[in-house]
User: Which sequence fits this backbone?
């Protein structure tokens, strides 16, 4: 209900008046025998000081239905109805027609859509700020989004559209953004906005947008709870909607995605593809050269001969130019997603560093169920190293002829 209007959390049916309003579908092209009628209920607050209508288009076949909403003052407490209906969903005023005590207005709803409106006087001596989670969005390297999932290294622009729900303007409104995950750390500078007056002419929201900048790095890896705070002022009618929280996830940078700009996701090569289909693997040793398949897109698929269960290799793609080599102090968290047949295999990761030293370490197990392996920490093994060549080996303890599928290999940075 927060996306409809925060006020609805404190409302209840107005006893004896809950059915006093009517709603009529004026525009449906669906035959009457297939039409599901809309519903409308009258709500009020705990002090019965305001009159609200909540109505719902239960017809889920068509968008753009026009509805006529009607209220007769004889069916309501005195003074409950006015010539202005505040739309808590779209944050503007709907003008209401009055004819001999009958109040009415038109509204258009899509399939399954509901609306909360409140009868108001249209005159106020103070502003009232509102911000909710859908009013917040962020822009990173992939553009604007409300799916707050980003990668360390991105520079974010975070925006919040703050609305004025009353007809008096307010200038010099301070808006701040804090990371409250562990303590309370301010993000960016305090923004100052000006809230225009809500127009009684109808159908125009009154808002301004606050902007914050957040540069993500390795120290930010993990989940964050951000809290946006709009300053309160004396006489503001409702301050419960001056604060909103949103959750952000900052993921570690992955070497192949960040440095190569081409993740090791095993997508099929489109130009001069190798026998094993993907350019994410430079070469192979001791694999069955007659058994390469491509039954699943974006998946390496190969077979290890039974005579090479302890000396096979897949060499991952790393350019020969040193600017593309792996910084072992930064990218040292290994994992992959894949599966094997026959029996589980030990995964060995081997490498050559910039001084031509060769080494390897066991980094996990490849199971017979497709999934991601546990992240293996290479920090102690790669401290101070630059890696120029990297390969995978799969080691089996029993005689099998395993088929292996690999969907993605990650080499991520460690949280700082």
Assistant:
């Amino acid at each position: 209900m927060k996306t409809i209007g925060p006020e609805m959390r404190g409302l209840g049916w107005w006893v004896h008046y809950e059915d006093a309003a009517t709603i009529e579908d004026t525009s449906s092209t669906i035959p009457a025998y297939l039409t599901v009628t809309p519903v409308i209920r009258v709500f009020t607050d705990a002090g019965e000081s305001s009159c609200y209508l909540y109505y719902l288009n239960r017809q889920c076949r068509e968008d753009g239905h026009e509805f006529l909403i009607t209220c007769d003052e004889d069916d309501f407490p005195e003074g409950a109805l006015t010539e202005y209906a505040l739309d808590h969903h779209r944050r503007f005023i709907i003008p209401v027609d009055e004819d001999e005590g009958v109040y009415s207005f038109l509204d258009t709803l899509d399939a399954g859509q509901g609306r909360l409106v409140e009868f108001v006087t249209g005159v106020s001596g103070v502003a009232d700020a509102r911000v909710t989670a859908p009013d917040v969005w962020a822009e990173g390297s992939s553009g604007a989004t409300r799916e707050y999932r980003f990668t360390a290294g991105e520079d974010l622009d975070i925006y919040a559209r703050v609305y004025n729900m009353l007809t008096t303007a307010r200038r010099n409104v301070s808006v701040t953004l804090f990371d409250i995950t562990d303590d309370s750390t301010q993000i960016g500078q305090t923004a100052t906005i000006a809230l225009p007056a809500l127009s009684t002419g109808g159908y125009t929201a009154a808002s301004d947008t606050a902007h914050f900048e957040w540069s993500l790095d390795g120290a930010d890896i993990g989940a964050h709870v951000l809290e946006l705070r709009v300053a309160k002022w004396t006489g503001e009618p409702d301050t419960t909607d001056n604060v909103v929280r949103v959750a952000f996830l900052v993921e570690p940078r992955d070497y192949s995605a960040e440095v190569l700009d081409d993740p090791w996701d095993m997508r099929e090569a489109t130009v001069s593809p190798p026998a094993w289909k993907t350019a994410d693997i430079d070469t192979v040793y001791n694999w069955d050269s007659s058994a390469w398949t491509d039954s699943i897109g974006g998946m390496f698929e190969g077979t290890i001969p039974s005579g090479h269960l302890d000396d096979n290799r897949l060499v991952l793609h790393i350019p020969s130019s040193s600017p593309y080599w792996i910084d072992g102090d930064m990218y040292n968290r290994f994992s992959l997603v894949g599966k094997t047949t026959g029996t589980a295999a030990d995964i060995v990761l081997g490498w050559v560093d910039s001084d031509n030293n060769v080494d390897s370490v066991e980094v996990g197990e490849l199971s017979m169920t497709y999934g991601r392996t546990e992240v293996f920490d290479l920090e102690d093994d790669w401290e101070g190293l630059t890696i120029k060549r990297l390969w995978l080996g799969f080691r089996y303890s029993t005689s099998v002829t395993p088929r292996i599928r690999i969907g993605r290999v990650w080499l991520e940075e460690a949280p700082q």
